[in-house]
Design goal:
Length: 389
């Protein structure tokens, strides 16, 4: 069963196995139980089309539109930089640059903030988890408007926090009143996503500022994973508000989801707090090199953003012509309500189109979410959508 066994003395193996069996019988549950806050959670089941797509015939055009990833490869400079790194004497046997210092330097230019406000992370999920681990204790109150990005909720729950989910009449409204009603001076964290996933709802920086000001003892997280698509940001507010953290990622607009690079921006005191448990080698060497190269080719980013905008107009016209209830969001995805969700998903998959079922989310009954790609991809996609809608 385990490769380790051959190193252990056989009599020791037997003894330890017997002992563990005994233990299991006594307590009638696994010998090592998870932490109390984790006990309440169910394993996260990631639903991805990746293996289904890989199983399809070679050469077939498929559409992976289920995870909001960029639909095209990143800037060619990313590959060049990674290859140059690998072919130089930059051996992979060394740990990566600590704290991603060079990447933070590049991010200074991109965000307009000095590096004391910035921290790089292993995807923005890692930043969200670091924030929860640093600032949340058992019983802390967390407020999150829903529907929202569920990973954050899991990270907060794993700390034993109590989550108050704020649900408005329509998930496509920003429902500021509802947020204010749910807040209290004791709220430890308020989690905002703008543009929101999966609704695309964008918060004005003034809305975020108002909340930061009204609740100075609450840490406000503003998750801007889709910032590039909407071009609306609250990141400048971190200079003024010591209770705001903005998280961002290279996984969406920059097309680097496979490299796992994200970052956060906040007051230097917050960054100092986070640095107490931050792992300075959390971003791997190739991720650092790739993200810097992507930041050095913003023309490529802009070209992709323009493609996505144009594609959204094509999709807007298409769904309007079908009288379908479609929300063309400011991010790189659209949400479409259909009468028979399971049917529609099946028909799309038959045609190599993989989208995300979001019908179980509050207010999103019958809804699917679909990433938006380039104009050429969208035109090809429409031929298949025509057969389904
Ligand atoms: C995709 C996504 C993330 C996670 O991005 P990574 O940087 O790949 O971890 C975080 N927040 C939201 C809202 C997302 O949609």
């Amino acid at each position: 069963m385990s490769n380790l066994n051959y190193r252990l003395r056989p009599d020791f193996i037997n003894r330890s196995e017997e002992r563990s069996l005994e233990l299991r019988e006594v307590v009638n549950r696994p010998a090592i139980d998870v932490a109390p806050a984790v006990r309440a959670l169910t394993p996260y089941e990631a639903v991805t089309s990746q293996s289904a797509i890989e199983a399809r015939p070679d050469g077939e055009t498929t559409f992976k539109l289920d995870w909001n990833e960029a639909t095209i490869a990143p800037s060619p400079r990313v590959n060049e930089a990674i290859q140059a790194y690998l072919s130089g004497n930059r051996d992979l046997n060394w740990y990566p640059q600590l704290g991603s210092k060079d990447l933070l330097g590049a991010l200074e230019g991109y965000t307009g903030l000095s590096s004391e406000h910035l921290m790089a992370s292993n995807g923005s999920d890692d930043a969200l988890q670091l924030i929860c681990n640093t600032f949340l204790s058992e019983g802390d109150e967390v407020v999150a408007p829903v529907p929202t990005y569920n990973h954050f909720v899991v990270f907060a729950q794993s700390r034993g926090a109590k989550i108050t989910k704020v649900q408005g009449d329509s998930p496509f409204d920003k429902n500021l009143d509802g947020i204010y009603e749910a807040m209290s001076p004791n709220t430890r964290i308020l989690y905002l996503v703008s543009p929101n996933n999966p609704t695309g709802k964008v918060l004005d920086p003034e809305d975020v500022e108002g909340l930061c000001r009204a609740y100075p003892r609450t840490l406000v997280i503003l998750d801007e994973a889709y910032f590039e698509f909407a071009q609306v940001t609250g990141i400048d507010l971190v200079r003024e508000y010591p209770n705001l953290i903005v998280t961002r990622t290279f996984s969406k607009a920059f097309g680097l989801a496979g490299l796992r690079v994200g970052y956060l921006a906040g007051d230097p005191d917050l960054v100092e707090g986070l640095s107490r448990i931050y792992n300075p080698k959390s971003v791997n060497a190739l991720g650092q090199v790739g993200a810097i190269a992507a930041l050095n080719d913003l023309d490529y980013l802009d070209a992709f953003l323009a493609e996505v905008e144009e594609s959204k107009e094509i999709l807007r016209d298409f769904f309007a012509s079908k009288n379908a209830e479609a929300y063309i969001t400011p991010a790189n995805f659209v949400v479409v309500r259909v009468p028979q969700i399971t049917d529609t998903l099946g028909q799309l998959e038959q045609r190599g189109v993989y989208v995300r079922d979001r019908s179980s989310y509050p207010g999103l009954e019958g809804c699917l979410r679909m990433s938006v790609g380039t104009v050429e991809q969208t035109e090809c996609l429409l031929e298949r959508l025509e057969e389904v809608f």
